[in-house]
Amino acid sequence: MADLTITGTGATPPSTLSRYLCLTELDAVNQMLEIIGEQPVNSLPANGVPDAMAAEILLFNTNREVQSMKLTSNTETNYPLTADNEGYIAVPPSALSVDCLYRNQDYVTRGLRLYNKTDHTYIFTPGQVVRVNITFFLPFTELPQCVRNYIGILAGFRFQERMVGSETLDKFSAVSLQAAWKIMVSTEIDTGKHNLLDSVSLNKLRMGRR
């Protein structure tokens, strides 16, 4: 992860305004630390604080995993990708998945370029526009609160398992995780996106298992 400094409602008492902000990465990391009985940190990255650094990495990876589920908030339909003067179509580096909209063509992402599996080539017609459904890996703070909450609880559930392994905490976290999952799925349904219900493999993710 690139170095960045994040401030939020972590270890210091929140101001009047910050009391009403959505969950930040700092908040989520401090929640994870609280689960294992560790002191909160005031900012990220938490250099020199091993448990906080581990929590931050786990939160980042969990965030990317959950966003790979193609949520309404990070997926755009009919998104244009344009071939450059040499015929290559660059894929945004933050793209988690790209789905072609053309039934008679099979386009996939290889590296950071689009590949035509039908014609076995990276080369398209210069200036050609290909329409795709694309899922982006968004910054944590650009996600809806219900998604941030689920990611934070899921990361905390896994963090507790790795660092403490308490069956009592595990059961308590599982209840919170289930509730957060239901809220997120309900929001997806309300916004007309049903990806979260389409795959049985998501059951493992729902309960925090890999």
The total count of helices amounts to 5
Estimate nothing, just give the exact number of structural domains.
2
Counting helices, strands and paired strands, the structural category is alpha+beta
pLDDT < 50 stretches: 1-10
Termini gap: 22 Å
* Rg from Cα: 20 Å
Q: How many beta-strand runs?
A: 5
Large-scale geometry: elongated
Mean pLDDT: 84
Strand order of the largest sheet: 1-5-2
Biggest sheet overview: 3 strands, antiparallel
Assembly state of the chains shown: single chain
Report on this model:
The chain has 210 residues and is an alpha+beta fold. The chain has 2 domains: 18-69 and 143-206, no CATH class; 72-136, no CATH class. The chain contains 5 helices and 5 strands, in the order ααβββββααα. It has a 3-stranded antiparallel β-sheet with strand order 1-5-2, with no helix packed on it. The longest helix is centred in the C-terminal third of the chain and has 24 residues, at 167-190. 29% of the residues are buried. Residues 1-10 have low confidence and may be disordered.
Q: Strands, helices and their partners?
A:
Elements: H1 25-35, H2 50-67, E1 75-82, E2 95-100, E3 107-110, E4 113-116, E5 129-136, H3 145-163, H4 167-190, H5 202-206
Antiparallel strand pairs: 1-5, 2-5, 3-4
Helix pairs in contact: 1-2, 1-3, 2-3, 3-4
